[in-house]
Amino acid sequence: MKYHPIDRQLFIKNRAKFTAQMKPNSVAIFNSNDIYPVSADSTLPFAQHRDIFYLSGVDQEESILLLFPDAPYENQREMLFLKETSEHIAIWEGEKLTKERAFEVSGIKTVHWLQDFEKVLFELMTYSDTIYINTNEHYRATVETETREARFVKWWKEKYPAHQVAKSNPILQRLRSVKETEELDLIQNACNITEKGFRRLLPFVKPNIMEYEIEAELIHEFIRNRSKGFAYTPIIASGNNANVLHYIENNQQCKAGDLILLDVAAEYANYSSDLTRTIPVSGRYSDRQKAVYNAVLRVKNEATKMLTPGTLWKQYHLEVGKIMTSELLGLGLLDKADVQNENPDWPAYKKYFMHGTSHHMGLDTHDYGKLTEPMQANMVFTVEPGIYIPAEGFGIRLEDNVVVQETGEPFNLMRNIPIEIEEIEALMNS
Known about the structure:
Layout: H1 9-19, E1 26-31, E2 37-39, E3 42-43, H2 50-56, E4 64-67, E5 78-82, H3 87-92, H4 99-106, E6 110-113, H5 117-127, E7 130-133, H6 148-159, E8 164-167, H7 169-177, H8 181-201, H9 211-223, E9 235-238, E10 259-263, E11 267-268, E12 271-272, E13 276-280, H10 287-305, H11 313-331, H12 336-340, E14 380-383, E15 386-389, E16 394-397, E17 400-403, E18 411-412, H13 421-428
Parallel strand pairs: 1-7, 5-6, 7-8
Antiparallel strand pairs: 1-4, 2-3, 4-5, 9-10, 10-13, 11-12, 14-17, 15-16, 17-18
């Protein structure tokens, strides 16, 4: 891996938090992701399932984590099952985890080769009553591919139909949403790498540059700082492309006078950052662009102050909508009649700001978190209001990542990334 080793104490703590919430006499199993085929012998780059990484630090395909805190023997309470490595595999594919190295990474002493999994599991099933299966229950999830986890669940249910079934996901939704100090440090590192990319970019952007040239500058800076690359598919949207919320073609020329909406950020050690800035192709904002930009910035700053312990996500978005409505009235994009006659299910401001303001962030860019439960300290949220005006040929979104504090305003992990108009213009013209 490109990233520096992570202290295994993080994964030891994470397992302890999870097992403390398991039912008596139960087993929990977590599988790595598959390596997905493209065609012929080509595959997509491997990306580890975040749950097994969160609980073990294992960042390798064909791995299984098994937790059985009430097992009769101590060496059965935490187990890793890994693809057996060999000299041949090391030559052709590169180094894989040995049993000794797996312990160093995870803190798990009992490590088996994967070929022994079914035999070991059979014995543990004779001792246990319940198995925790790890289904994907994220509110944004749309999964059409059968995952390694899904295949395991089908196999297990057929093999052991008399056992009770429980779900890992509700536990993980709560645990993963509240970050440990070590996790906050990793996310901060991802944000710092993102900052380096953005600062590299500002003096580079000029009229007639292609969107993909900007993408290339960013990936260069990210990788040279130990990131695997983008935390998500980058959006580099010049001109009216910014009004397509998930524009990812990045193949158009950036024209003088236009704005570029950049929703781009680095990952580090599987942890995400999530940045949006909107910059002028020519290095200067027009008066109208400045007015809209500063309106979005004011909404972002006011919304950020509301991310405090006890806040409910739904109520928070209602309050942000009121602030945005006021700004849109000031810009002349809405009038009082629009607001008075609005549909409560789709308020007038949604014509220009149609997405949510914040989401959980961490190991996933849209991370785990129960949206129906109050916010807590050490949750990490994005704050990303925007105003999109197709009729005027531009859209503006601004986004930072913040940590909810016990008291006071959130801590901004992107506090050092330029956002004020004057600083951006100065750096672009330096």
